[in-house]
Amino acid sequence: MDQLVLFVTLGFGVGSVYAVIASSLVAVHAATGVLNFAQGSIALWGVWVAAELGTTGTLVLPLGSVALVDGPAPALLAVVVGVLSSAVVALLTHLLVMRPLRSAPVLSQVVASVGVMLLVVSLVPLRFDTTGAVASPILPSGTVELLGAQVAVADLIVLALALVMAAVLAAYFRFTRWGTATRASAEDETALRLTGWSPDRLAALVWFATGALTGLVAIVASPSIGLDPISYTFYVLPGLAAALVARLRSILLAAAAGLAIGVFQSLLLMMSTYDFWPIWAQAGFGDTLPFLLVMVALFVFGKAIPERGGVQSARMPPVRPPRTRPVLALVVVASTFAAVLLTEGGWRFGVVTSVIMMLIALSLVLLTGYLGQISLAAMAFAGTGGFLLSRVTTEWGVPFPLSLVIPALAATVLGVVVGIPALRIRGAHLAVVTLAGALAIQTFVFGNPAFTPFEGNQIQDPSLFGMSLAVRNGTVLTTTSFAVMVLVVVGLLTWATARLMRGRTGRAFLAIRSNERAAASVGIDVAGTKLLGFAFSAFLAGVGGCLIGYSRSQLSVESFTVFVGLTLLCTVYVAGITSLAGAVVAGLLAPLGVLATFLEGTLGVGHLYSLIAALALVITAVLNPVGITGSVRHASEHLIDRRNARATS
Amino acid sequence: MSALELKGVTAGYGHAAAVRDLDLAVSAGEVVALLGPNGAGKTTVLRTAVGLLAPSAGEVRAFGRPLPRKVEKNSREGVILVPDSRAIFHQLTVRENLSLARRHRARDLDAVLDRLPRLAPLVERRVGLLSGGEQQMLALAKALLARPRVLLVDELSLGLAPLAVQELLPIVRTLADESWVAVVLVEQHVDLALSVADRAVVLHHGRVALSGSAADLRADREAVRQAYFGGHAPEDALV
Fold first, then answer.
1. What chain B residue is nearest to A196 in terms of C-alpha separation?
2. What is the mean pLDDT of residues A7-21?
3. More confident residue, A369 or A635
C-alpha cells in the first residue's frame, strides 16, 4: 500500500506538467481554434532559462545573453524570469506565427506549430550548456507521511499549483466577461468585433497567460523531473491526449486527465519492477499510454469534439497532378546518376541519402498533400521497415529483393492500423494521433532493449545474382552498385506513385481531401480510399526505411526518431507538400541529405541544421504556404503569361 | 451635424462595386429606411458604415469624425450593426450574450428586458435553444444594451413571423424618439419599414434610385415600385 502511494505521488511531478499543458491547450484552442504542438517547447524554454539563472545568474536569450546577477540568482528571481520567458515565447508564437495563419488551412497551422516546437528544441542545446546541468531546488525538500508512505512535499506543492492554475484558467473562461468574450470569439470573430471586442487581444492574453502558467508549473516541477534538452517538448503529447479526452472543452477535465496520465505512467513503472511483468513491456510502455488514450477518447467521444467533419470543405494548399514528362524525368534521373558518379565519400553518401529521403518525402506528399491526412508518423513507418529488415536478413536469411518487400508490407499493415483512426477524425486531431503513434512506436519498439539484440540491429548486405550491392567495399563509403540499386528502386516506386496520383485513385484522393461528404456523394469509397492512401504511403516509407538500413549496415533509433520525422515534414512542407517536385526538393533538403552534407562538410555548421530547417518551416508556413516548388511554378507561370501577353500585343 | 455621413462612397468586393458614389446622411433621432431589391447594395452600405468594409472611394464620418478603421472601436463608440446573421453566440447563454455588450451599465439590463419582456424568462437559456424570433429579440437587446448612438439594422424581419416584426420595429422607433439615436433600417418589408421610418432611400444597382420622406413614399407607391425595378417595372409587379 505504501509503495502504491509512493508511486502515485511520484507521478505528480510530471502529471502536473501534463495537466497544465492540457489545460493550456484547451484554453488556447478556445481562444484561437489552434492546437498548439509547441506548448511543451514553451515550457522547455522557461525551464532552461530558470535553470541557467539559478546556476550562473545569466539570462539567456535566443540571441545573446544578459548577466542579471553575479553568481547564482535567487530562486524567486529565476522562477519569475523563467515564467516570463515562457510567456513571451508563447506570445511571440501567437503574434508572429499563429495570428498571421488564423484563416490558413489546418495543415499550415499544424506544421507552423510543429515548426515552433522544433525551433525551440533545436535552440536549447545551442544556447544552453546541456551536459550535466541540474535544476537547483526551488521548493522545500522535506517529506510528509501520507497513508504510510514518505511523500515529498515538493511533489504535493507542484500538484496543488497545477490544479490551482487549471482552476484559475477555468474560472477566467467561466466567470469573467473577458473569458466569456474569448469563448464567443471561438464561435464567430466578426460578431465579436461587432460587439466591440478585439479577438486578437483576447487571444494574445490567453497565449501569454497559458505560456506563463505552463512555464511556472514546469519550472517548479523541474528539480524533481530533471533537466533534459528534449523531454518537455514531448510532454505536449500526453497534454494533447488529455485535452482531447476533455473534448477540448473542459479545462478542469483536461487537467485531471493529464494528471491521471502522469500517475498511471508512474504506476506502470512500479508494475514493471514486479516479476510477473513481461520483459518486453518494461521500457517505453508508458509512452504508448497517450496513444492508446487518444485512440479510445477519439473513438468514444468522436462525435462531440468540435470541428469534426464540418460541412465546410477543408482548405488545403493547391495541387497540380503530375503530368507525363519523360524528358524531365530522364533529366532528373540522369543528373542524379551523374551526381553519384562524380562524387565520393561523404558527398556521395549525401546524394544517396537524399534519393532515399525523397521516397519517404513522397509518402508524405501522397498522404498529406494529396489525401489531406496530416500524418506525423512517416518516419516511424520507415523505422519499422528498417528494423524488420534487420530481422529478415540476419535471422531468416531472406535474399535481397524480397528482403525489401516483407518489411515494407509490415510497415503497410502498421500504416493501416494508424490510419484507422483517420476514418473518424481529421485535421489537427489526426496529427495528434499520428504523432502519439510515432512516439509509441519509437520508444516501445525501436527503443525497447527487449527487441534489440545485444550486438545491435545488424543488417546483412544485399546481393543480387551473386553480385554484391553492399554499401561499403573496403574504403569506399558508398559503392556505385549500391547507389544504382537505390536509384532503380526509388525510380520505379516514384513512377508507380506518379501514375497513381495522376489516375483515378489520385482524383479520388483529391476529392476526399477537399470534401469527404461530397466525395462520398459521388460514389467514392471514402474509408477504403483513405486506408489505401495510408497503406501505400506506409509502403513507400517502409521501403525507404529499408534502404536507409542497407545504407548504414546497422540500425539505431537515432535514424528514425520522431524528431527526424518532424524535421522531414518540415523539409517536405518547405519544398512543397503537394507535388512530386516537392518530394524531390525535400530529398535534397532532408536530414543527412545533400544540404545537410553541405552544411556539415563545407560550412561546418551541421549542428545548426535542425534550427535552420525549423526556421525555414515557420517562415514558409507564414509567408509562402505553397512552398519552394509552388513559388517556382508561380514565377514560371507569371513569366509565361508575360511572354504570351507580349506575343499577342 | 449628422450622426452618420457617407460622402461619395464606392464600396464592394474585389473589382465588383456594390455601391457607387453614394451620399447618405442620418441625423440623431432620425430613422432612415434603406430599401431596394436583392443585390442593390443595402447590406454593403451597412457594412461600410460600421467599418467592416473599407470604401474604395469616398468617406464615412461618424459624429463628424472619420470612421476609425477598427470595427471594434466603432462599436465601442456607439456605431452598432445588427447584421442579418444577428451577431449572437449560440454556445453562450442569453445572459452571457448580453453581458458582452460594451458600454452598458448594470441597470440598463432591466430597462432593456422591460422593452423586450418575452426575453426576460429566457436569460439563463443557451441561445442555440431559442427560436428564430427569440434570437432576433436577443440581437436587438444586445444592440440596445450597448447604448447605440448610430444603430444599423439589417433585415430585422428576416425569417420572422409578421406579428413578431410588428413587435420589434416600434422599439427601434422609440429608440430614435427617446434616446436620440440615428437609425438605418435595411428592410425588404416595404410597408413596415415606411411605417416606422422618417425617410427612405431606394437603392438600385448600388445607386440611389429614389429618396424622400416616408410619408411621401407611402403615398406614391408607384414611384417606389418603379425605383425598385430601375424604372422598368412590369405592370403586374408587386412591392
1. B72
2. 90
3. A369
**Residue A311 banded pLDDT, cuts 50, 70, 90:** very low
Max distance between CA atoms of chain A, in angstroms, equals: 92
Q: Which residues of B touch A198 (CB under 8 A)?
A: 70, 72
The C-alpha angle B98, B99, B103, rounded to 5 degrees, equals 100
User: What residues contact residue A68 under an 8 Å CB cut-off, 6+ apart?
Assistant: A53, A57, A58, A59, A77, A81
Q: Give the Å distances, CA to CA, from B73 to A195, A198, B5, B52.
A: 10, 9, 17, 11
Interface test with B, best of A174, A194, A201, A307 (most B CBs within 10 A): A194
**Average pLDDT for residues B63-71, to the nearest whole number?**
88
Would you state the cell numbers that stand for residue A612, as one nine-digit string? 535552420
Whether residue A471 has pLDDT greater than 90: no
Q: What is the mean pLDDT of chain B?
A: 87
Higher confidence at residue A105 or residue B60? B60
Is the domain of A121 the same as that of A242?
yes
| Rounded alpha-carbon distances, angstroms, from residue A614 to A43, A60, A87, A459, A589 | 18, 20, 20, 32, 12
A30, part of any domain:
yes
pLDDT given at position A636: 77
Residue bearing cell 528571481: A77
Instruction: Report d(CA A36, CA A38) in Å as an integer.
Output: 5
Indicate the range of A340-344, A455-459, B152-156 predicted with least confidence.
Answer: A455-459
Q: Which CATH number fits domain B4-228: 3.40.1170.60, 3.40.50.300, 3.40.50.620, 1.20.910.10?
A: 3.40.50.300
Per-residue model confidence (pLDDT) at position A217 = 94
Please state the domain extents for chain B. Answer: 4-228
Interface residues of A toward B, Cβ cutoff 8 Å, are 177, 180-181, 183-184, 186-188, 190-198
**B89 Cβ under 8 Å from any chain A Cβ:** yes
CA B145 to chain centre: 16
Q: How far apart are alpha carbons B53 and A456 in whole angstroms?
A: 65
Chain A residue numbers with beta carbons less than 8 Å from the beta carbon of B109 are none
B146, A195: Cβ pair inside 8 Å? yes
Check if the beta carbon of residue B36 is closer than 8 Å to that of residue B203: yes
| pLDDT reported for residue A163 | 94
Q: Do B101 and A188 touch (CB under 8 A)?
A: no
What is the average pLDDT across A568-594? 84
**Residue A641 pLDDT > 80:** no
Contacts of A483 (CB under 8 A, 6+ apart): A340, A348, A351, A352, A355
Residue A573 inside a domain? The answer is no
Dist. CA A299–CA A287, nearest whole Å: 20
Return the C-alpha cell found at B94: 442569453
Check if B123 contacts A (Cβ < 8 Å): no
Question: CB-based contacts of A391: which residues, under 8 Å, 6+ apart?
Answer: none
Per-residue confidence (pLDDT) for residue A135, from 0 to 100: 77
Residue A58 pairs with which residues in a beta bridge?
Answer: A67
What pLDDT is stored for residue B227 in this prediction? Answer: 84
